[in-house]
Amino acid sequence: QLERKWITISLIVIGLFVGIITIDALFHGVNPPSKVETVDSASLHLNKEFAEDNLGVQVDDKGNVTVRMVAGRYSFFPKHITVPAETTLTFRWVSMDVLHGVHIPMTNMSTMIVPGYVAEITTTFPKPGEYPMLCNEYCGLGHNHMWSNISVI
Ligand code: CUA
């Protein structure tokens, strides 16, 4: 019968899909990408020592500039940072509570900050000036007021 033929064909197609998914899972693994760094959000208490030891702008012996910041309802910490212009900056973000975003208008800086993960982004400011840093993921009632400043010198 015609109906039985179609049912058979459908089953074969479904079988193929399941097969492809299974083979894909076996060969590519179901693990997350290996370069993702995780962080324990609960440990990010914003006490004074933590901020002094870990946050802000740091330059290593090779001259690489790393900026470490924490996003939390409703600000970025530190509230204000100063960085050099025409320099490659590596920003490393973590969230201390919920999903936030960070966006600096007129730059390539726009990323989600997912709790538990380090969001790393590299950028360069071509010109000195004052830049606002805004949250662009809705994170609660204070979302519209979540921002901080960057002075580029
Ligand atoms: Cu943080 Cu919106």
TrEMBL record:
Residues 62-153 form the Cytochrome oxidase subunit II copper A binding domain. It comes from the Bacteria. Its main location: other. It comes from Methylobacter tundripaludum. Keywords: Copper, Membrane, Metal-binding, Transmembrane, Transmembrane helix. The chain holds residues 28 to 180 of 200 of the full protein. One of its GO terms (cellular component) is cell envelope. It is found in: Cell envelope. The chain crosses the membrane at residues 6-27. This is Cytochrome c oxidase subunit 2. The keyword Transmembrane helix applies.
